[in-house]
Design brief:
Blueprint: E1 6-8, E2 13-16, E3 25-28, E4 32-34, H1 42-52, E5 61-63, H2 69-72, E6 82-86, H3 90-95, E7 117-119, E8 124-125, E9 128-132, E10 141-145, E11 150-154, E12 157-158, E13 161-162, H4 172-182, E14 189-192, H5 202-216
Parallel strand pairs: 4-5, 5-6, 6-7, 11-14
Antiparallel strand pairs: 1-2, 2-3, 3-4, 8-9, 9-10, 10-11, 12-13
Helix pairs in contact: 4-5
Length: about 220
């Protein structure tokens, strides 16, 4: 199933799908964005913003779910925004490490970038609670909208499985523990870093994925 260029998830969240290389991008409210893609498709992203009636200059906060280039490469185009990332992934972004950020894997150039706020477990940003979910990277996070029972899951979990653990900072054991924790939460919708969102019965799907992972291990 091909994803539309953008779709309204709730009154407050719009999902943008640029390409197979780019992460899903989520615009939350009028001034917050979760992940920004590779940056390779900036012109298309700019056009989609216009079609959505949104404004690049209105984005004040970027929350990166982890340090990989396909999620952070577009940060540089939001000139008025502060960058937020977990304290364990932030140093690699600030150093512009091409291996740990997987920039070299995507054929991109990872220039050092400022991370204005290092996130920790439990931080609350514009109604989204930071859940530290290591496994894909050491500083991977999910963002939880408790009011609407929505989980923005980054590359921790997808509609049909979980994120890779064979990249720098990855850990199967850490991922399994993160999934075990997420499976206890009250989640209706899951908005992943790639692929289709889970629009209902998110908790059941998460429990199923956790059981499959734990059975393998």
């Amino acid at each position: 199933m091909s994803l539309p260029p953008f779709s309204k998830i709730t009154d407050n969240i719009t999902m943008i799908h640029l390409s197979g290389l780019d992460s899903n991008i989520y615009v939350v409210g009028k001034d917050t964005i979760v992940d920004t893609g590779t940056g390779f498709n900036f012109v298309r992203l700019y056009d989609l913003f216009k079609r959505m009636g949104a404004d690049f200059d209105s984005i004040k906060t970027i929350i990166n779910t982890h340090m990989h280039f396909d999620h952070v490469g577009g940060n540089k185009f939001f000139e008025n925004a502060k960058v937020l990332a977990h304290e364990l992934d932030a140093p690699h972004m600030e150093k512009g490490n091409p291996e740990n950020t997987c920039a070299s894997f995507f054929g991109g150039e990872m220039k050092p970038m400022s991370v204005d706020q290092k996130l920790k477990e439990g931080d609350l940003i514009n109604g989204l609670k930071v859940i530290h979910t290591p496994g894909h990277t050491k500083g991977s996070i999910c963002l939880y909208d408790e009011k609407n029972k929505i989980l923005l899951s980054g590359d921790t979990i997808f509609a049909d499985g979980v994120g890779r653990t064979d990249l720098p900072g990855g850990s199967e054991d850490d991922l399994e523990k993160s999934l075990e924790r997420l499976a206890t939460m009250d989640i209706a919708k899951i908005l992943p870093g790639h692929g289709e969102p889970i629009m209902k019965d998110g908790k059941k799907q998460l429990e199923k994925i956790y059981e499959n992972v734990s059975d393998i291990h």
